[in-house]
Amino acid sequence: ILFRLFPKLKEAYWLINDLRAIFRTKSSTKETAKKALEGWYKKVTKSTLREIKSVKQSIQHYEDEILNYFINRDTNASAESLNSKMKAFRSCLKGIRDIPFFFYRCVTVFG
Fold this sequence. Notes:
Layout: H1 2-5, H2 7-24, H3 30-46, H4 50-61, H5 63-67, H6 69-72, H7 77-93, H8 99-110
Helix pairs in contact: 2-3
C-alpha cells in the first residue's frame, strides 16, 4: 500500500537495497564491487531522487577508500572507538584540580 501511494519511496527503497546487496555479497572482490557500483551508478543516474544522487556523488568521491573494504572486509570501527574513548577521557579532565588523584581513579576504574 505504501509503495502504491508513494512511488518515490519505492524507488528509493530499491536503490538502497541494491547498494546494500553490493556490500552484503561475501564473494565480492574490489574489482567486482567496482563493477557492481558502476551498475548502481547507472541506475541512480536514471533516478529522479536528488537525495540518492547525493549519496552517489559521495560514494564516487570516496570510491577508492570505500572499495578498500572489499580487500579484507575491514572497517575503521576500532580506530573510531578508540578516538571516542579518548574524547570522553579528555572531557572528563575539564575542571579537575587534583590531576594525580584523577589519573589514579581512572586507572583503578578502567585498568
